[in-house]
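Notebook, p. 212. Picked up where the previous page left off. The plan for this session was modest: take the two constructs that came back from the sequencing core last week, fold each one, and keep the raw output in the notebook itself so nobody has to go hunting through shared drives later. Recording the first one now, exactly as returned: residue sequence, then the structure token string.
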Amino acid sequence: MVMLQVDERNQDDLSRLAGCYLYAGTQISVEDGIVHREDGPAVIFPDGVVRWYLRGKEVSRAVNSLFYDNKWPIAKGLDTEEKRTRFAETFLT
């Protein structure tokens, strides 16, 4: 996995990869040519908005639902072993 910084020279290519417009300054996690990250959001916009992707598929709504259902603050992300375990059980198996 590599975390890339969007800038003018790669903005179009990375936006196509993510399937949405990426502003300069956005951080995007790419693995084997697809947007992917198992330990946090794969796209982090400069204004703090995040999008979660697994193997190229956006799962942000499902992740937000998981956090909401468990009464976890989304801003803290996967900061505990319980959260990481539940995330893995829900999305990675």
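Okay, moving on. Second construct, recorded in the same format:
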Amino acid sequence: MTKNPTYTVAALYHFADFPRYAGFKAPLEAICEEAGLKGTLLLASEGINGTVAGPRHGIDRLITFLREQPEFAALEYKLSYADDEPFLRMKVRLKKEIVTMGVPGTDPRKIVGTYVEPEGWNDLIADPDTVVIDTRNDYEVAIGTFERAVNPDTASFREFPGWARAHRDELQGRKVAMFCTGGIRCEKATAFVRDLGIEEVYHLKGGILKYLEEVPADESLWQGDCFVFDERVAVGQGLEPGDYTLCRACRHPLTPDETRSDAYVEGVSCPHCIGRLTDDDRARFAERQRQIELAKKRGQRHLGG
């Protein structure tokens, strides 16, 4: 990464009582357009969540606007940087939840785990009496996680409550430490586990991204890279971009070795999805890739890319 990267990336979320969320969509879109930002922001009655990128002054304009709203006055955010544009367009979406767990009544504003700052996380997870749980999805865990972390092997966050219920007896009476990418999934995960009756529950404040930013490499207990939901694909210590490529067919992160596999065809298939694709799928993806390459030749960016 250059010393003066072109794009500033802001990951943000805030839980709040926000019944006016639908009417907030248009003014939020207008601010993002005015600020020259791209990315995705989700709005729901429980708050806001998302990641956007653009010039630093544009990010500052958005954060100022959001903090001017009484519901988001205490909003926190995390910054990282990119040389290449992380997103292709700006989307503001209305949702039932800002992070989808699918369990009505799970409210981090009422009950949540104990926040642990990055500098205190190592001591907590090094304790053999602590159960360390990675609340992210299986494809995220596959490219990096913390030492000793339990992988629930979930394909989506909706599966986490079922895993937690099934393992409740194993967690009872133990210290439980949870982590996720930026912190939002842990807000709900710790609230849910607390609702199950598990008392001593902790989570990493600011998530993996904050840990990788603040904890020196020689002290880090993180192993591998951290998947991020933008064109960087993954970041490592110090939030430096990793060496992963995204399969455009199934959205799975790929190592350099996987992109050299016979199963990998750019934009069409990879070792993780080739066995699931139909002939129609391959034809559709191949046409999309052809359009992407034509757009590149014209000096444009195709939204499918």
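Notes on construct two before I forget. The chain has ten helices and 15 strands.
Flagging for discussion at group meeting.
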